[in-house]
Every structure is written in C-alpha cells, then in structure tokens.
Amino acid sequence: MKKSGFTLVELSVTVFIIACISVVLVIVLRSNLTTMKFGQKHMDFNQKVLLAIRRVFYDIKRINPILTKSLAYGYALKNELAGEPKPRIIFIRKSKDPKDRDELEFVIDSNLDVEDIYNIKYYLEDKALKREVRDKAAQVKVDTVLENTTAFSVDKDDLDIKQIFVKISVDDPKSGIKRDVDFAVRLETDFVYVDKRDL
Prior knowledge:
The chain is α+β, with helices and mostly antiparallel strands. The chain has one helix at residues 8-61; strands at residues 67-70, 74-77, 88-94, 103-109, 117-125, 128-135, 140-147, 149-156, 163-172, 177-186, 192-198. It contains 1 helix and 11 strands.
C-alpha cells in the first residue's frame, strides 16, 4: 500500500511561497505606512498654514466700518452722525532693511458696541508670526499665529487702493517642508485708507 502525504520538497516549496508572499505583504504595508505618515505630516503642516492665513484674512476683513441704525437717519456709518466720520486706517510699516520685519496694524470692533475696539498688529518675531491685540484699556495680549515663519511681508496694491498683498514663508525643520504663501485681501468699502510707511 502506498502512503499519501506531502514530501519534504513539497513542504519546502509551500513554505518558500508563503514566505515570499509574507515579505511582499510586509513591504507593501510598510510602504503604505510611510506614505500615510508623509501625507499626514503635509496635511498637518498645510492645516496650520491655512489657519494662519484665515486668521490674518478675516481680521483684515473685519476692519470694514460697521453700519449703525438710527430712527431719525436710517443707517449710517459709526461716528458719522456725530459729525466725526473716522475712516479705518490700515498701517503697513515696511522695514528699510529687508532682513527686518514688516508690520501690519489696524483697528477693529469686536462687536456692535462702539466701546469694544481693538488694535491688532501682525509682525514677525523669533521665527514666528505674532498677533498682538491691544484693547481700549491698553491691555496687550500676544499670540503666536504660526511658528517656523521665515518671512512675513505686507504691501498695498498700487493699482487698487482697496487691495492688500500678504506673503508668508514657512520652513518647518521637523517635516522638512517649505512653503511660500501669497494672498490678497480686498476691502469692500471706500471708508478705509491704507497708509504705507517706512519703519
């Protein structure tokens, strides 16, 4: 009688095939994990940059004068009824030294309350984009908007008085990612003046 079963050669071939498939699966899995980590790093980095851009963008947009309602006159700009129309001024201070910082400064109302006024300034300090807020009581609060910022520049558009250009350069040593981000903010009012001066 002939005994049925696997020979040593058949077992060796089977083990070899299983080992090859396992090695291929490990390589594919490792490659996918590396790609996923790389993508996650880029996503986290881009998210931080996007949040910083949105913060600067919406702060500038908020300087538009707020309309107030009056029973006698309908709607008017704040302070206009009192005979004191006060345009909002955006100060862009350019450094004569290109290695030094630019500053962007303006005033916003946080709510509809005329007393609730905040002076906001953006500038670069210690390789970080800073946002300084000064309220009416001269209380100062400084936040870091974006770390690893290598450049921050602001300029007005000579062809469009309502437009401001902002450029932010970021170099993250952890992820090795570098980004130069340029964007423009357009103000939808004639009641804003952009003042560009040298520091």
